[in-house]
């Protein structure tokens, strides 16, 4: 038996994109349902991003999601760039006229969003299977799924948002001939750890080392997050905790500085990839976040792009469904792709400048070092990094 129902917007995926979209729509009186194939506990625990641009922070505050972030998030006014054995500071506030970033984990944003949506009576179905999108080119696209109890559902919608991440199904629901893909795979990966130890730094350290890139970031004053460049085909079983700490100490070390170590509570290897699918819409099916584009994490842009996409999409859907004005919806893909390509270029640039490419020769290595010296010695070059890192295009809600 199939259960039939109706809503305004069907949202696939309860990551930050899908959850925030349903919250923004609710604030403007538009109904939605979110369907998610994982459990609530899984969504709330998945370790991912940690760094928000100033515009993302301001948006979350504006829509009532700022309380815990303001109390517990860590505001950073710059980063350290390290290469050739020396550490240099970039002061974002000075370079950009006062802009900053905030360390606030994606897990915490997701927890706040799920709690808020459920408290407001929002519909989120966890642990669904066999999600399908039908008739995306009609005015009544259909979302089908099987709920955790095994009941098949068919939800008739006015629009569907594909917020189902890189491995989701929605991107594949666009006609094959329509979608253009531009992508790049990098010949290395990131090994990321979460450790119960106070960070050994006040701001993030991005280190280019001859043996590979390393990054020291954090989650709270008691919890550190660190990353190591590893070969693309490396396996986590080959990295004991002792080997990870020794390599981090080696790549992040400078005279007079110590890396504090502690119990590692989580470790995983993630591939590095740039990927942009366009257009981000077909009829009344709209893609947002990782479903449409992926950036390597070196620029810390993935979560910020997901937030930006759904902010544009929420306005477009409110205009379309409540005010019967289709203009913003028609321009959704073009509007988002301008920001997506800026972030894609910045993430590629940071990645290429800081990682050791196993296929690069001395010429490539010298170009990287020259670029790094330029960034720390030229105010114009440092400002380019700072204004992209803190978020270049304004976010309007
Ligand atoms: P998500 O978070 O992948 O959520 C998609 C959701 O859709 C569900 N799903 C389905 N549900 C129903 N039916 C189906 N058929 C489905 N298929 C999938 C999935 O279970 C999931 O719950 O995508 P979203 O919402 O677009 O959010 C994107 C961000 O998660 C991502 O861009 C960032 O985490 C990227 N990222 C970073 N971004 C930053 O802005 N700053 C950072 O510091 C940063 N660090 C990172 C990162 C990503 C990393 N990894 C692991 C990829 C560090 C790492 C290591
Ligand atoms: C993180 O805190 O996980 C993080 C921060 C900055 C990055 C990537 C990841 O560039």
Give an overview of the whole structure.
Helix content is 35%, strand content 29%. It has 397 residues and is α/β, with parallel strands linked by helices. An 8-stranded mixed beta sheet has the order 7-6-15-16-17-14-18-21. Helix 1 packs parallel to helix 6 (106-119), helix 1 runs parallel beside helix 8 (302-321) and helix 8 (302-321) packs antiparallel against helix 10. The model has no long low-confidence stretch (mean pLDDT 97). The relative contact order is 0.17. P-hydroxybenzoic acid (PHB) binds at residues 49-51, 204, 217, 225, 297-298, 300.
Question: What are the defining features of this structure?
Answer:
eight-stranded mixed beta sheet; 12 helices; binds 8-demethyl-8-dimethylamino-flavin-adenine-dinucleotide; six-stranded mixed beta sheet
């Amino acid at each position: 038996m199939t259960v039939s129902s109706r809503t305004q917007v069907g949202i696939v995926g309860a990551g930050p994109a899908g959850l925030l979209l349903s919250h923004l729509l609710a604030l403007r009186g538009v109904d939605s349902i979110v369907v998610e194939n994982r459990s609530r506990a899984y969504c709330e625990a998945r370790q991912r991003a940690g760094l928000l641009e100033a515009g993302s922070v301001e948006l979350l505050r504006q829509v009532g999601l700022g309380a815990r972030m303001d109390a517990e998030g860590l505001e950073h006014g710059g980063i350290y760039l390290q290469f050739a054995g020396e550490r240099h500071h970039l002061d974002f506030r000075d370079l950009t006229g006062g802009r900053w970033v905030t360390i606030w984990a994606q897990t915490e944003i997701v927890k706040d969003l799920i709690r808020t949506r459920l408290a407001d009576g929002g519909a989120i179905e966890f642990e669904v299977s066999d999600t399908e999108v039908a008739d995306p080119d009609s005015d009544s696209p259909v979302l089908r799924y099987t709920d955790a109890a095994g009941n098949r559902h068919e939800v008739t919608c006015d629009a569907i948002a594909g917020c189902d991440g890189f491995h989701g199904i929605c991107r594949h629901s666009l006609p094959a001939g329509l979608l253009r893909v531009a992508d790049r795979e990098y010949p290395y990966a990131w090994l990321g750890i979460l450790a119960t130890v106070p960070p050994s730094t006040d701001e993030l350290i991005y280190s280019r080392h001859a043996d590979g890139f390393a990054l020291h970031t954090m989650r709270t004053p008691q919890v550190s997050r660190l990353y190591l460049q590893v070969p693309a085909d490396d396996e986590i079983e080959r990295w004991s905790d002792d080997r990870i700490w020794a390599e981090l100490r080696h790549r992040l070390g400078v005279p007079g500085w110590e890396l504090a170590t502690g119990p590692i509570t989580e470790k995983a290897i993630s591939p590095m990839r740039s990927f942009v699918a366009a257009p981000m819409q077909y009829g009344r099916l709209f893609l947002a976040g990782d479903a449409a584009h992926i950036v390597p994490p070196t620029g810390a842009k993935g979560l910020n792009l997901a937030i930006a996409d759904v902010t544009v999409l929420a306005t477009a859907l409110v205009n379309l469904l409540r005010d019967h004005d289709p203009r913003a919806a028609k321009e959704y893909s073009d509007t988002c792709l301008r920001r997506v390509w800026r972030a894609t270029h910045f993430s590629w640039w940071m990645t290429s400048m800081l990682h050791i490419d196993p296929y690069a020769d001395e010429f490539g290595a010298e170009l990287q070092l020259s670029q790094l010296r330029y960034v720390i010695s030229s105010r114009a070059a440092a400002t380019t990094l700072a204004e992209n890192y803190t978020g270049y295009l304004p976010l309007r809600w």
